[in-house]
Amino acid sequence: MLKDSVYSVVGNKCPQCHQSDVFKSNAVFNLKTFDKMNESCSCCGMKYEKEPGYFYGAMYVSYALVVGWFVLTFIIDSFIVKSQTWQYLTFFVSTIIVMMPLTFRTSRLIWLNLFVKYDPSKTIYHHSIKQ
Ligand SMILES: [Zn+2]
To answer: Which DSSP string do the residues of 35-103 spell out, in sequence order?
Structure first.
């Protein structure tokens, strides 16, 4: 279900059991740790990187997110803000750079959720882990 995937992506939770974190730190904009992932879920045992290079596919998701951001901001700029081209481009490029850690994590979480469905029965330690 879409809401299960949204929960996992937004909350940085294992797509299969929703218990453990996928990325080690929840500090999205800490440049030293934002990309560090746990190897597998400590709760259901799911291995996040199924095979070497598994997350290359997340680059397509990342690209789609950036294109979506471009379309959204371009429409808003064209019809409402009406800034000059260089102003818009400066805004667009700087938001892409600043949001890079968030885009990176979100695209990997979306990529995981494309292939793994939420299954509470896979949880080994039901209710024993409190967040
Ligand atoms: Zn899990």
So the answer is: T-B-SB-TTT--BSS-STTGGGGHHHHHHHHHHHHHHHHHHHIIIII---HHHHHHHHHHHHHHTHHHH
Query: Can you name the residues that pair with 21 across neighbouring β-strands?
Result: 13
Q: What's the CA-to-centroid distance between 14 and ligand 1, angstroms?
A: 5
Q: How many angstroms does the Cα of residue 30 sit away from the middle of ligand 1?
A: 24
Whether the predicted model's global pTM rises above the 0.85 cut: yes
Torsion angles phi and psi, residue 5, rounded to 5: -65, -40
Distance (angstroms) between ligand 1 centre and the Cα of 89 equals 41
Mean pLDDT of 17-35: 96
Q: How far is Cα 40 from Cα 21, in angstroms, rounded to an integer? A: 9
- Kindly give the distance from the C-alpha atom of residue 20 to the centroid of ligand 1, in angstroms, as a whole number: 6
Residue that wins the pLDDT comparison between 14 and 124: 14
What pLDDT, in 10s, does the model give residues 76-116? 999 999 999 999 999 999 999 999 999 999 999 999 999 99
